[in-house]
User: What shape does this take?
Amino acid sequence: MDAENTSPKKPCLEQIPAAIKILISMFLLIWLGALGLDRAMQAGINWKNLAHWQNPRSTNDTISVTAQGKVTAIPDVGLISLSVESRNKTVTEVQTDNTKKMNQVVDYLKGLKIEDKDISTTQYNLYPIYSYEQRTGKQSLDGYQLTQTVEVKIRNLDKVGEVLSGSIERGANQVGQLTFSIDDPEKLQQEARVKAIAKARAKAETLAQAAGVDLGKVRSFSENVNNPTPYPMYYARDMAVGMESKAVAPQIEAGSQEVIVNVTLSYEIE
Assistant: This one.
C-alpha cells in the first residue's frame, strides 16, 4: 500500500462544525472583554471617566470675569516736612542758631500732643558757602549753611493749621508738601475685596445662566489693589520765609480718598 494513503489525515478549520466556531468566537469575545475591564479597573478608570473620554472637555472651558470693589474713606493722618535753614560765618554759629530754632519747633509740636514717634529727622545738611571773584577766578569762604528737616505725622487733622502757623512762628522757614493719607488701609482693602468678589461671582452666574452651563470651582484668582495716593497741598516757601511773627493758621480740608480693589476670577464650566 502507498505511504501517502496509509498516513492519518490532519484536521483543518473547514472540517470544524459551524456551531463550534460560533462558541469559540463567543468565548474569545467574553474573555477579551473581561480582560479589558479588569485592566481598566486596575488603572483606576471608572465609568464617569469613560464618559468623559467619549465627550472630552477642554481644560480651557472656563468663564473669566473681572469686577471692582470700591470703598470711600476720609484720610486720618497728615504728613508734612518742616525745615530750618540757617546761614552764618562759622560752623558753631550756624549750628547754634539752627539747633535753637529747630528745638523750638519740636517742643511746640510736642506741646500739641504729637508723640515722639511721629517726629523724625530726615535731613541734616551742613556745607560751606563760597563766593567767586570773576576777575581773578579765586573763591573765598563766606560762611556755612545748615538745613535741618523733620517729618511730622499729624494724627489729629484738626491741628494741621496750628502745626503750620506755629512752626513758622518758631523758626521753620521751609515747609514741604502736606499730604493726607489713610494710616491703616488694610481693613478698607479687605472690604473692597469682598465687594469685588461678590460682584465677580454675580457676573459669572449671569454669564453661565445665559450660556446654559453650570459654574464649577474657581480655577484662578488675581487682584490689583489701588491704594489711595496721598495728594499734596503745597504751602509755598515764600509764605514761610519772611512771614510776620504771628502767622495765621490756614484752614485745611483733608477731603476723601478711594480704596479700590480689582479682582479677576476664572470658574470651571461643568
Summary: The longest helix spans residues 186-211. Residues 2 and 8 are 13 Å apart (CA to CA).
